[in-house]
Amino acid sequence: MVTGGNPTSLPIPLQGAAFIRFALDVVDLLRLAEPHGLDQASFLQQYFTGNPPLPPNIGDHWWSEFKRATDYSNRHFENNEDGWAWIRARPGLTRGQYFYHVVAVRDGTRADVVESAASLQRLEPFTTRRWLTQTRSRMRVRAAEGLSLVEAGRQQGDPSLEARGQAILDEFVMLSPRLAAINFDTGLVTQDLRQLAQSNDMRIQRLLGPRISRALQSSQRLERDVNAIAEQVLRLAQVYQLGSPTNLP
Known about the structure:
By secondary structure, the chain is mainly alpha-helical. The chain is 59% helix and 10% strand. A 3-stranded antiparallel sheet has the order 1-2-3, with helices on both faces. It has a two-stranded antiparallel sheet with strand order 4-5.
């Protein structure tokens, strides 16, 4: 358990090595807090274990440091630096309350997903307001959720959990601003097309039926190709990580 030192010291922003140690402590605390995550109250309680209650201004200062640490971790995660986490927040039940979660942690060149899918399911609808960032953030959370469910199913011997995870990983998203404009989200997935193709609404079948069928066939072919490419890329990445043979570029 991390101990925060003197909680009543003057609120001076951390610098240099002290801030890096604090940011790593934040990552550790967030990992321990899964699947519930940390809001301001739970973070202060965990970080200052054994210390007296904090005055409000001191607590607000350390919460600002906490958020600065999450931004710092996200930047280093994007730079593929080992040990840093990709962190996202979701709103709580009260005004201004946010719970922060670790989605994945860099382990070498790979991003290891956190163990619990429960927090990912809570987090997915609340990635970010900006559309382009939302696309990437929601996709990362969705992929992490799928991987987490697959691993949980294998560890627990639960085929239904693993099947749910594989279904998520097999989703094929058509990223088009025109498609996204329908619901102002990340676009359509293959399952959306399947539902339209199976619709009993005669207007949908008359106006869109042939086009939906062609789009579904095209997306399924592309989905198979993308899955095959992804598998080969992962294998190639493992080869490079272990040492590239002389006949590879």
